[in-house]
Amino acid sequence: MKKRRFFLILGLLIAVISTAVSFATESGTTTLGITASANSASVTLPSGTGQAAGKYNGEAPTWSPVVNSTGSITAGDLYIVNMVSAGVNKRLTLYLNNPDQLSKAYSYLNMKVTVYKANIAAAPTAWTPVAGGTSYLSLINGYISFDLTNGEKYAVSVDSGSYYNMKTSGVVLAPSFFAELR
Predict the structure, then answer these.
(1) Shortest CA distance to 182 belongs to which of 32, 30, 38, 31?
(2) Low-confidence residues of the chain, pLDDT below 70?
(3) Looking at residue 165, what is its pLDDT?
(4) What is the dihedral angle through the alpha carbons of 132, 54, 32, 102, rounded to the nearest 10 degrees?
(5) Residue 10: its pLDDT value, please?
(6) 3-state secondary structure of 2
(7) Three-class SS string for 138-167?
(8) Which pLDDT score is estimated for 72?
(9) Euclidean distance between CA atoms 133 and 54, whole angstroms
(10) Interatomic CA distance for residues 109 and 138, integer angstroms
(11) Are 173 and 86 in contact (CB under 8 A)?
(12) Is 3 helix (H, G, I), strand (E, B) or coil?
C-alpha cells in the first residue's frame, strides 16, 4: 500500500515537472526584426515620399484606445518590399510578434492588411492593390502570407481595423511586427 502511494506521488510529480518544462519551452520570446532572402530583394520601413513611402506616404497605422470601448484603426504603411531585382518570386509572411501581450489589453484586434504594387512609371507613384493581396491579421491567427512577383515594388499596409480595449495602463498597446521574405 505504501509502495502504491509512493509511486502515485512520484508519477504526479513527474507529470507536473514535465508539464512545466514543456510550457517553458513553448512560451519563449521572439526578437523584432526583418529577414530578407538572397537575390537582392529587400524589406524596409517606409520613409520619405513616393516609392519609398508607400500607399499612405510612410504614415504608420494609428489608434487611440479608451478603456471598455471599441475603436477603429487609421490606415498606414508597415513595410516596403523591393523585388525589382529579386530574380525569383517570393513569399512574404507578416507576423504579429506580441499577441500574448496585446491580449491583456484587447479583447480583439483585427487589422485589414493589403499589399499594393507600385506603378514605378507614374509620377507621383501610383499604388494598386495586388489580386489576392488582402488578408486580416488578428490576435487569433498571428500571421498572414502573400506571394510577390519578381520585378516589382510593393507596399504592405494596414487599410483599416477595429479593436475592443479592456485596459490601458500597465499593458502593451502597440503591436510589434516581423516580416520574412522567402
Answers:
(1) 38
(2) 1-44, 47-52, 123
(3) 94
(4) -70
(5) 53
(6) helix
(7) ECCCCEEEEEECCCCEEEEEEEEEEEEECC
(8) 95
(9) 15
(10) 6
(11) no
(12) helix
State the Cα–Cα distance between residues 48 and 110, nearest whole angstrom: 27
Residues with Cβ within 8 Å of 152's Cβ and at least 6 positions away in sequence, in order, are 83, 84, 117, 118
CA angle 121, 123, 129 (to 5 degrees): 70
Q: What's the Cα-to-Cα distance from 57 to each of 45, 61, 76, 81, rounded to whole Å? A: 11, 11, 8, 15
Q: Which residues contact 83 (CB under 8 A, 6 or more apart)?
A: 41, 90, 148, 149, 150, 151, 152, 153, 154
Neighbouring C-beta atoms of residue 108, cutoff 10 Å: 14
Which cell is 25 given? 519551452
Cα–Cα distance measured from residue 178 to residue 181, given in angstroms and rounded to the nearest whole number: 10
Coil, strand, or helix at residue 89?
coil
Give me 70's grid cell: 471599441
What is residue 111's predicted lDDT score, i.e. its pLDDT? 97
Say if residues 179 and 92 touch (Cβ distance below 8 Å): yes
Digit-coded pLDDT (tens) for 39-70: 445 666 776 555 567 888 888 899 999 999 99
